[in-house]
Design goal:
This protein has 474 residues and is α/β, with parallel strands linked by helices. The protein has a domain of 221 residues: Amidase signature (AS) domain (Amidase signature (AS) enzymes), CATH 3.90.1300.10. Helices cover 39% and strands 14% of the residues. It has an eleven-stranded mixed beta sheet with strand order 1-3-2-6-8-7-12-13-11-9-10, with helices on both faces. Bound molecules: glutamine.
Length: 474
């Protein structure tokens, strides 16, 4: 069995000493992918291509011209365009669609000699928190195959968890990198809104969507952020702010002011193991000299409704492009223009996507716009202001990533509102645009991973990563 390296620096030294080759790494991961195919992680494995690129990279390593990520084997979520490769967003409507250009993130990975091993299953159009909304079926959690992987980047999380690649790239609109990371015991970073280009990412809710890495070490999250982040002429929403260099990750020695959400410990909706883990870390942090203070976020009850009104509104607009004419699936039963639209969309989209398009259209429609969409925008501003105010007084906000560990497959599928509430801790950073990271914090007695989330000021990923690295040693 292939060795699972915690950080890329170990791979780099193995490649340098000749102990391993990029080709042997790819071969090892391909074996794992085959052995664990029943987890349903990949929508497609780029087997031959990954082997060819590994051979080329081995040559470049030998002659000293290899890039920063040479030999890092990466899986990408199947909503990230890669020229000449299919990209489906795990939807029937894009089942046979091939990208005609590469996303900026793919280009930046390849420019640094990363090897892309395949595209990962996810919730359809990234809508979900369990990876049970995929046209290609759910992804199973490697810690317990009867449990969900989390979503929507569930395939990306399990690919790292189960040793099918070294790191993965996901997208996070309301928690889709952080929540599956916590369900699968890996690290998931959602950078500040505007940190990483979304050029070539299939849009879900454009005022929230961000790309983020799923890794086994904080150092790798920092390295991938360094490679992926920064201004892009193809995406005007990317900030010009300087990108932290991964090499500048510092050993954290300062004493921090940390706020934790007291409702996370008092609310009956939060699982006992999650509460115990949070309490345990609060005590550890205090013992180490940090100030850890309980806070109440007065807009807590409004987080999930505000997020869902806005995300659905934006989704209804973004998904209007799938009309059976421009892209993807066209119903064979269509007879004229109207039936082309109606049937292609009815047959091409899954249940959850249709629900969101309808609700999103509703909140944007004349007569309801002011009551829902415009009001949610105002509440979003209040949430941003209040979060900023807290971060003027505290360095970090600590919460669980999710209120429960991974639940059983099929359990929550029937009531969408129950799954929406799963996003209670992740959507604050999404609404406010701040960076947040999910860090593995041990397993419960059934062996299911638990994750804690740290949130900080916009564009302060450097501080977030420094502290996360320290947190992981606690
Ligand atoms: N669970 C949230 C949703 O369904 C978040 C998904 C995401 O971040 N893509 O919208």
């Amino acid at each position: 069995m292939a060795k699972n390296y915690t950080s890329y620096s170990e791979i780099k030294s193995g490649l340098k000493s000749g102990e391993i080759t990029a080709e042997s790494l790819v071969t090892g991961y391909l074996q794992q992918i085959k052995a664990k195919a029943h987890l349903n992680v990949f929508n497609e494995v780029f087997e031959d291509e990954a082997l060819i690129s590994a051979k080329n990279i081995d040559l470049r390593i030998a002659n000293g011209t290899a890039g920063k990520l040479a030999g890092m084997v990466i899986a990408i979520k199947d909503n990230i365009c890669y020229k000449g490769h299919k990209v489906t967003a795990s939807s029937k409507i894009l089942k046979d669609f091939t990208s005609i250009y590469s996303s900026t993130v793919v280009e930046r990975l390849l420019a640094e000699d990363a090897i892309i091993i395949g595209r990962c299953n996810c919730d359809e159009f990234a809508m979900g928190a369990a990876n049970e909304n995929s046209f290609f079926g759910p992804v199973k959690n490697y810690a317990d195959e009867a449990h969900v992987s989390g979503g929507s980047s569930g395939g990306s999380a399990v690919a790292v968890q189960a040793g099918m690649c070294h790191a993965a790239i996901g997208t996070d609109t309301g928690g889709s990198v952080r929540q599956p990371a916590s369900f699968c015991g890996v690290i998931g970073l959602k950078p500040t809104y505007g940190r990483i280009s979304r050029h070539g990412i299939i849009s879900y809710a454009s005022s929230f969507d961000q790309v983020g890495p799923l890794t086994r070490s904080v150092a790798d999250a920092a390295l991938l952020l360094e490679v992926l982040a920064g201004a892009d002429e193809h995406d005007s929403t990317v900030s010009q702010m300087p990108v932290p260099e991964s090499g500048s990750l510092k050993k954290e020695t300062g004493k921090k002011k940390i706020a934790y959400l007291q409702e996370a410990l008092s609310s009956p909706g939060v699982n006992a193991d999650v509460k115990a883990t949070l309490t345990h870390y609060i005590e550890k942090l205090r013992a180490d000299g940090h100030t850890v203070t309980p806070i109440s976020f007065e807009l807590l009850d409004y987080l999930v409704p505000t997020y869902y009104i806005l995300a659905m509104a934006e989704a209804s607009s973004n998904l209007a492009r799938y009309d059976g004419v421009h892209y993807g699936y066209r119903s064979p039963n269509a007879t004229d223009l109207e039936s082309t639209y109606k049937l292609s969309r009815s047959e091409g989209f899954g249940k959850e996507v249709k629900r969101r398009i309808m609700l999103g259209t509703f909140v944007l429609s004349a007569g309801y716009y002011d009551a829902y969409y415009a009001k949610a925008q105002k509440v979003r501003r209040l949430i941003q202001n209040e979060t900023n105010r807290l971060l003027n007084n505290f360095d970090f906000i600590l919460t669980p990533t999710a209120p429960e560990p991974a639940f059983a497959l099929g359990l929550k599928e029937k009531d969408p509102v129950v799954t929406y509430l799963y996003d209670i801790f992740t959507v604050q950073a999404s609404l406010a645009g701040m960076p947040a990271i999910s860090l593995p914090a041990g397993n419960n007695s059934k062996g299911l991973p638990l994750g804690l989330q740290l949130l900080t000021k916009s564009f302060d990923e450097q501080a977030l990563l420094n502290f996360s690295d320290y947190f992981m040693q606690l």
